[in-house]
Amino acid sequence: MVVIFSDIKKIGFELIAKARELADKRGKKVCAVVIGKDTGTMAQEYIQRGADKVIVTGSSMEHFNAEDVSDILEKVVREERPDVVLIASTKDGKELAPRLASKLDAGCISDANRIYIEGDSILAERVVYSGNGVAVEQFSTLPGIVTVPGKAFDPLPADPGRTGEIVNRDIELKPQRSRIMDVQEMRSEGVNLEDAEKIVSCGRGFKSSDDIKLIKELAQVLKGNTLGCSRPIAADLKWLSEDHWVGLSGHKVKPKLYVACGISGQIQHVAGMRDSGVIVAINKDADAPIFNSADYGIVGDLYQVLPKLIEAIKQKM
Asked: Which of 57, 76, 131, 268 could form a disulfide with 169 if both were Cys (CB 3.0 to 4.6 A apart)?
């Protein structure tokens, strides 16, 4: 069996798709775990996306607590005895996975972008050294715990006619050493880079914050309207909020189109956008590393290139 857990439903769909593939190769089943109140129709949606069994529990939990959730998953794993547990590599998932691995005395692989079976072994690959290498890791004991970032796998289409087992289980939670005193929503500009199909990003090639209007206009004519940036623009200069930051320490994105304007292409930035469908780079330095990752490149001053590119797209559209 393969067990999956995600605190974000859309990543849960992606995990089920990979779990379905792994389970089918071993002739086993997929079990999804839904924890918390206000889960709505999530269990049925998981069945439609490929799960054979969904365990719904923790309805008394007001907020995500890694201690409580790890206790719940420990009980589920010991009962279901899966070969592998897939956990969404979200902020909460990254805290949860090592706790669960410690309770189970199991191995834990983080941020895997490929998971597969060779013989009787389960292997996972993940990017290391800021994108300069790929580590291939193998579990020596089972179950294995794997965290998976969003967009690593494509979800299966929903099948409304698919059936499965939904189990409502009351798992008693013991008092924990930590308590959540208050939860405040992070202030955001409403940018959702992970879901954007087209992203236009800016880097240190821009001379002032006022010039960002150029990529805003380009994004508008491309009918994308989503802006990204490299680390200096968000972290150092504060021209854009960290909601726009693309990179190893920022957001990892996978749009159909990524346009990098005035971005040199340091490996920390490339690690966040390398899986984009089509990458277009605009930079006056012909030797800029960004061109090594680009499908199309324009060598030139962005202050001359962008207005002409915007005008050309307007005419074409």
From this structure: 57
pTM: 0.82
The distance in angstroms from the start CA to the end CA of the chain is: 50
Query: Is the Cβ–Cβ distance between 9 and 41 less than 8 Å?
Result: no
- Which residues constitute the domain of residue 103? 2-168
pLDDT tens profile 117-144: 998 899 999 988 867 789 999 999 999 9
pLDDT of 38 higher than 80: no
80 inside domain: yes
**pLDDT per residue over 249-261, tens digit each?**
888 899 999 999 9
| One domain, residues 19 and 151 | yes
Number of domains comprising the chain? 2
Cβ-based neighbour number of residue 274 at 10 Å: 16
38 and 148 belong to one structural domain:
yes
User: Do 139 and 222 fall into the same domain?
Assistant: no
Whether the pLDDT of residue 37 is over 90: the answer is no
Let me know how long the chain is: 317
Long-range contacts of 171-178 (CB under 8 A, 24+ apart): 171/57, 171/58, 171/71, 171/72, 171/75, 173/58, 173/60, 173/61, 173/68, 173/71, 173/72, 174/71, 176/65, 176/67, 176/68, 177/67, 178/65, 178/67
101: in domain: yes
